[in-house]
């Protein structure tokens, strides 16, 4: 078993997206390969060109994090890609259902559309976390 | 000759100070030192642990008034 970390991100809650971004970026900069598969409501938060207030929806911690300028979740994923081995996949089913192309998503963040079968198969060789 | 730079990451929340350190280290030469000023309590344990894991050298962690100074030497 490798030490790779696989994160299946489905929730559209800001707090969960933030935690996924923290885990992904910290693991990646700690020389751990990371792959993130983004699906369901989580995908909506990765639409390009949105302001944080529009992008993130959550509970009390979401409000506090926005008010206190906690690191932006999207930027955390970007940092993981810049400084480590982090790959991100947009769920092809979610894209199809929404009628979205990759151009609907934040630029230079995703490595492509991906299928769940391949992701789960790859994840058998590492640690899988579902958020 | 090695150089020392200081990053003022006070007010940044986890993992902000660590990310700022990594960005700074990337631009430095081996042997250079980067001091991170952080008010994030997690930095006190997180930065030394990160250094240990990726083989940089954490030289010191000093508590100041309301923040910490963490000194790191780029080792690779």
Write a concise keyword list for the protein shown above.
heterodimer; A: 131 residues; alpha/beta; Hypothetical Protein Ychn, Chain: A; five-stranded parallel sheet; 7 helices; 5 strands; 45% helix; 18% strand; B: alpha+beta; 4 strands; globular
Query: Unreliable runs of chain A, pLDDT <50, ≥5 residues?
Result: none
Largest beta sheet: strand ordering of chain A: 4-3-2-1-5
Fraction of residues of chain A in helices? Answer: 40-55%
CATH superfamily of chain A: DsrEFH-like
Radius of gyration of chain A: 14 Å
Number of helices of chain A: 7
Order of helices and strands of chain B: EHEHEE
Estimated radius of gyration of chain B: 11 Å
Walkthrough of the structure:
The complex is a heterodimer of chains A (131) and B (76). Chain A is of the alpha/beta class and 131 residues long. Chain A has a single domain (5-130), classed as DsrEFH-like (Hypothetical Protein Ychn, Chain: A), CATH 3.40.1260. Helices cover 45% and strands 18% of the residues of chain A. Chain A has helices at 14-29, 40-44, 52-55, 60-67, 73-83, 92-98, 116-123, and strands at 5-9, 34-38, 86-91, 112-114, 127-130. A five-stranded parallel sheet of chain A has the order 4-3-2-1-5, with helices on both faces. The two termini of chain A are 22 Å apart. Chain B is an alpha+beta fold and 76 residues long. Chain B contains two helices and four strands. Chain B has helices at 16-26, 43-54, and strands at 4-8, 33-38, 57-63, 68-73. In chain B, strands 1-2-4-3 form a four-stranded mixed sheet, covered by helices on one side. In chain B, strand 1, helix 1 and strand 2 form a beta-alpha-beta unit. Chain B starts with a strand and ends with a strand. The model of chain B has no long low-confidence stretch (mean pLDDT 96). The interface between A and B is medium-sized, with 14 and 13 residues.
